[in-house]
Amino acid sequence: MLPYRLPRPLRLALYALATAILLYLCLAPSRDLPKVNLWDKEEHAIAWFVLAATGLLLSPRRPRAIALYAFGVGAFVEVAQGLMGLGRDADWHDLAADSVGIVAAFIGYLAIRLAARRSRSRVYARP
Questions:
Q1: Does the pTM exceed 0.90?
Q2: Which is higher by pLDDT, 15 or 41?
Q3: Out of 14-23, 24-33, 118-127, which region has the weakest mean confidence (pLDDT)?
Q4: How far apart are CA 99 and CA 4, in angstroms?
Q5: CA-to-CA distance for 17 and 105, rounded, in angstroms?
Q6: Rounded to whole angstroms, what are the CA distances from 45 to 3, 8, 57?
Q7: Exposed/middle/buried for 118, CB within 10 Å: 0-12, 13-18, 19+?
Q8: What share of the chain is helix, strand, coil (3-state, %, to 5)?
Q9: Residues 63, 68, 71, 76, CA torsion sign
Q10: Does residue 125 have a pLDDT over 90?
Q11: 3-state SS string for 20-69
Q12: Residues 3, 11: contact at Cβ < 8 Å?
């Protein structure tokens, strides 16, 4: 079964779980997280790519809402990191990296939609 065909409450629960995992990774004290040999901005771009791509897989007909939600989560994380003082710092560069991940997910989404549209047009084209 395709993810977007799951019942809506299940899709929302799965996306909430993805968001909760991301929020934990972003807001937990840095000493409690595993060390990863990636540049901080790469981590942000990858994390928000996964968040946006997950949203698009679960609800492909709501791309604008997915983009706004993912960006909003990124902005919330930066504000929260600046306020909490657990070894985390607010940095607008992180929000820019989040945006790069979101845009990358949308480029993939649009490429897949374009390929599907072309495939359908070939099937229905008359020789």
A1: no
A2: 15
A3: 118-127
A4: 24
A5: 19
A6: 23, 27, 18
A7: exposed
A8: 80, 0, 20
A9: negative
A10: no
A11: HHHHHHHHCCHHHCCCCCCCHHHHHHHHHHHHHHHHHHHCCCCHHHHHHH
A12: yes
pLDDT in tens, 36-95: 666 778 989 999 999 999 999 999 999 999 999 999 999 999 999 888 876 677 889 999
40: CB partners within 8 A, 6+ apart: 94, 97
Which token pair is 92?
A: 């607008």
Q: What is the mean pLDDT of residues 20-41?
A: 80
- Residues 6 or more apart whose Cβ sits within 8 Å of residue 45: 97, 98, 100, 101, 104
Residue 70 and residue 51 in contact, taking contact as beta carbons nearer than 8 Å:
yes
Token look-up 């981590």 returns 43
